[in-house]
Hints:
CATH architecture of the largest domain: 3-Layer(aba) Sandwich
Low-confidence stretches: 2-8
Order of helices and strands: EEEHHHEHEHHEHEHEEEHHHEEHEEEH
Largest sheet: 7 strands, mixed
Radius of gyration: 22 Å
Strand content: 5-15%
Structural class: alpha/beta
Shape: globular
Strand order of the largest sheet: 4-10-9-8-7-5-6
CATH class of the largest domain: Alpha Beta
Mean pLDDT: 95
Amino acid sequence: MTFAHNSLERHDDAWPTPGGPQDIFAKEDPDWPLPRIVRGDDIYLYDEAGNRFIDMSSGPVASNLGHNNRRVVETIKDQVEKLCFAQSRVARTNENIALADRLAEVAGPGFERAFFVSGGSEAIDTAVKFSRQYAYANGDVTRTKMISLMPSYHGGLISTIGLGGDEVPIDVFREMTVVSEKIDAPLTYRPPEGLSQEENEDRILADFAAILERVGPGNVLAFIYEPVGGVASGANVLSNRFLKSIRQSCNSHGILMIADEVMAGAGRTGKFLASSHTPEGMPDLIVLAKGVGAGYTPLGIMLAPARMVDSLAKITGYPYGHTAAANPLSCAIGLAALEETLERDLVGNAERVGNYLQQQISALADECPVIGDVRGRGLLLATEIVADRATKRSFDGDISAPDRVRRIAFNHGLTIYGRRTNNGRFGDAIMTSPPLITTNDQVDDMVERLGATMKEFMDEATRLGAKIG
């Protein structure tokens, strides 16, 4: 496959080329010009030269409905002609109310209220601020500490970087953000040597209790976590047993639980809410994004119980917002995406096709020893890349496996989301999480291309001096 790239030349003189694509802000890499995508349809993307790519990671695990979904496209056209903006502080809109009502119906008891913003980072920020406002209004003014997992990811705002479990951005912004208390994530593929999964969970739960004792449980506001992780943990799945124990501890000390379902929510794991897989560890607040807008609009959501929202409204309310909060255009698109997901049983399809995809990539590991693990739930899956499967050894730092696989995949007609986090401390994974509309036949095609990608990566890594196996 060959590409026709339009590059942006960088000049060292006083008059640089104006404008340019967003990636010009990234670290310069003249050897890797990105393709210019001009069209999308179903699970496919097309560049200006007519090359077709399978969107194997749904962008950054966002395009749940694939591309050019006609129901959503027609909704956009109709809504643009009717109403694009009305500020939620001074007006109500039918679109806001309709999406909130339908979401509450689908989410079920305990999540009767929905607050809409522009994306996942804003929604995480909202959940933390709402939690603090609720505690403050009810006299718990000392509750300011947050606890999260290492590794994890909770957004790119200054206010959320410190919540995440990636030391690379934390080091840059440490003096500008509030860094949460951290406990180890119970990684299913990389528990400490000699410990079973349950023994590792017990060790981490003991660390959680130790943090409460050290900082004082009355000073802890909330525990934030991903029920199924993203790139940072490689789709690591938290067990019902683990979350049940955390829930019991939080209940005992008046601590809230916030589930970050920015990637995992909206049906991707085989249930509409990923937290429904762990009924004994249900959170107080759930954050959704990515899939609820399905790549058609920026949209993030905090789901909250009526008991918290309505009682707070009688005291101080939640007096914070954003210009695009509850934007009617985004709400209309979100409702169309939600109805499409439900009416086509894409939640069920995510479970069925996700199981098939996991089986097929696992089978591919027989031919590709660099595939160490395939994990996740539904169509939120990650494939971990290792240099030695027996020892789970990652590739050395000069070979960033996610970046190299991502580049090679383009030449085999795949777009894959993956990046090295924590400098590879917790392994290297790529997200193999295609849209919820994917079929088994399409899985067969993408896995064949992934196999060719992995084989070319092994050849390249060997040429660079890496020892495989």
